Amino acid sequence: MKNACFRLLCPALCLLLLASCKAKIAGDDNDPIFKQAGLSAITEKIHKDPKNAALYFERGNTLHEMEKDSLAIKDLKKACELDSSKAEYFSAVGNVLFEHKDISGSVQWIKKAVEINPEDGKARMKIAKMFLYIKQYDNAFAQLNIVLRHNVYDPEAYFLKGMVYKDMKDTGKAISSFLTAVQVAPEYKPAIIQLAQMYAMKNDPIALKYYDNAFKLDTADVFPIFAKGVFYKDRKDYVNAKLAYTECVMRDHQYANAYLNMGWLLLQQDSLEKAKHQFDLVAKIDPTNAEAYYNRGLCNEWLHNKQDAINDYKQALVFSTDYKEAREGLKRLGSK
What we know:
This protein is mainly α. It folds into three domains: 37-117, Alpha Horseshoe (Serine Threonine Protein Phosphatase 5, Tetratricopeptide repeat); 127-218, Serine Threonine Protein Phosphatase 5, Tetratricopeptide repeat, CATH 1.25.40.10; 223-336, Tetratricopeptide repeat domain (Serine Threonine Protein Phosphatase 5, Tetratricopeptide repeat, Alpha Horseshoe). The protein has 19 helices and no strands. α11 runs antiparallel to α12. The longest helix has 27 residues, at 2-28.
């Protein structure tokens, strides 16, 4: 009789234990985000195979793309725990921590990645970025040179060298490195943008060509068009600057900086009502933009709308408490 009861209880106990394990796994995933498209399928696979490190790595990367980094780090660390032989798992944890300026936390994970795979160029470039961040330039170059010894055609390594030189204020060598990055990878957009900005700093019209090339590579990103407007503005070519800003907002109606700069140009031309309209648009798109309120306050002050100007200056100070110009504006109008 005992044996019969035991035989009956065993399957029941197994089912209870299995349910308990699944409940524990599911309990780790009780955030509603795991039910969203792109995550629900991976989460279901994890429930069925909870020891599969690759699944946690995949979900961690997806969470990182969704800017849910606290959850992403948890999954990526779990991947490392389940399989400590994969350099890319440790590198991914370090990368997310580095993006959040946790330099000391990031270093240990990326160093582990390099220990596992000394030829992991991505990990070494992340270490180089850290050295750049803390301005240890020689150490940054040392890591990048190791990468280039293994792959002389790696555009990111040349790009990072350019960024180190740029931080060192060595414009010539920075440009040379960015040019090399584009030579080995003609569509490497970060280097193209940097070349445009470096030439713009030199007031060289060749910057416009690079901005155009960058935009052609990704027409969804209107920054190069906006940057052309800035280049023209700095040269006091306000006609072409306006054309660039207009094109920018025609392609992206939410690009606040283009409206802000257009408003500034209109202020220079004493088109106060038109300028004010531009700053109104910025305040609607980006309600915490202190510059929008300050500049709209300036328009109101010059239009003799005293109370509106006071309100705008005060609002600018809400979002930027040390906004000196806004305080001076209130002082001019006899307000505190």
